[in-house]
């Protein structure tokens, strides 16, 4: 590829629990030295669950925005974890809905911000499941909501949904299902 960049030296400037920040020395596509600031992230998995014409959402307070955000169940991948199993784990933890791997279909892999992070979010459509009791992670406070697809479409059209993975997953689902 003519525009490929080459890392000369990876310079880790911060190592957190979830992410690492780098300020790398790189050769750009023309071979010119430059710097690239980037965040290494383990990735995430998201579950779009629709049953009886209703979508399973979670509402949770997001510190960085200072507000509650309505989003699809999702979470960080553990090292070496199968993204499908991660999506099903998050669905069960956050909503209490348990499902089998064969009930989940990968819709797509999303690159939420390719300009500065390597994060990938695996978006799954979970076609059926069984409602049980939710069991969020310690320190995670979520409210589960089941919203009719017509309301979801209204939220999408009005710009009242703000979470990127949720917006893209719902739009893909609606396009695929002539919604």
Explain this structure to me?
This protein has helices at residues 83-95, 149-158, 164-176, and strands spanning 6-9, 12-15, 20-27, 33-40, 44-51, 54-62, 67-71, 74-76, 97-98, 104-110, 121-126, 130-131, 142-148. The strands form three sheets. Strands 5, 6, 7, 8, 10, 11 and 13 form a seven-stranded mixed beta sheet that branches. Strands 1, 2, 3 and 4 form a four-stranded antiparallel beta sheet that branches. The chain has 179 residues and is α+β, with helices and mostly antiparallel strands. Strand 5 (44-51) and strand 6 (54-62) form a beta hairpin. The radius of gyration is 18 Å and the shape is elongated. The chain is built from three helices and 13 strands; from the N terminus they run ββββββββαβββββαα.
Secondary structure layout plus pairing:
Elements: E1 6-9, E2 12-15, E3 20-27, E4 33-40, E5 44-51, E6 54-62, E7 67-71, E8 74-76, H1 83-95, E9 97-98, E10 104-110, E11 121-126, E12 130-131, E13 142-148, H2 149-158, H3 164-176
Parallel strand pairs: 5-11
Antiparallel strand pairs: 1-3, 2-3, 3-4, 5-6, 5-8, 6-7, 6-13, 9-12, 10-11
Question: In a nutshell, what does this entry contain?
Answer:
With 179 residues, the protein is of the alpha+beta class.
Which key terms come to mind for this protein?
179 residues, 3 helices, 4-stranded antiparallel β-sheet, alpha+beta, 13 strands, single chain
| Overall pLDDT confidence | 94
**N-to-C series of helices and strands:** EEEEEEEEHEEEEEHH
- Helix coverage percent: 10-25%
β-sheet strand percentage: 35-45%
Number of strands: 13
Structural class: alpha+beta
Q: Could you tell me how far the N terminus lies from the C terminus, measured between alpha carbons in angstroms?
A: 39 Å
Q: Which outline best applies?
A: elongated
What is the C-alpha radius of gyration, as a whole number of Å? 18 Å
Low confidence ranges: none
Provide a count of the helices. Answer: 3
Described by strand count, sense and barrel closure, the largest sheet is: 7 strands, mixed
């Amino acid at each position: 590829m003519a525009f490929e960049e080459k890392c000369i030296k990876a310079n880790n400037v911060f190592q957190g629990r979830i992410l690492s920040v780098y300020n790398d020395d790189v050769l750009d596509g023309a071979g010119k030295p430059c710097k690239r600031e980037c965040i290494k992230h383990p990735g995430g998995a998201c579950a779009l669950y629709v049953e009886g014409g209703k979508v399973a959402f979670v509402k949770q307070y997001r510190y960085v925005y200072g507000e509650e955000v309505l989003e699809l169940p999702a979470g960080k991948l553990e090292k070496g974890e199968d993204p499908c199993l991660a999506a099903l784990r998050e669905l069960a933890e956050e909503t209490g809905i348990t499902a089998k791997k064969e009930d989940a279909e990968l819709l797509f892999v999303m690159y939420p911000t390719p300009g500065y992070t390597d994060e990938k979010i695996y978006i799954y459509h979970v076609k059926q499941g069984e409602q049980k009791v939710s069991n969020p992670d310690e320190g995670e406070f979520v409210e589960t909501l089941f919203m009719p697809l017509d309301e979801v479409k209204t939220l999408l059209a009005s710009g009242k949904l703000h979470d990127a993975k949720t917006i893209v997953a719902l739009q893909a689902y609606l396009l695929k299902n002539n919604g």
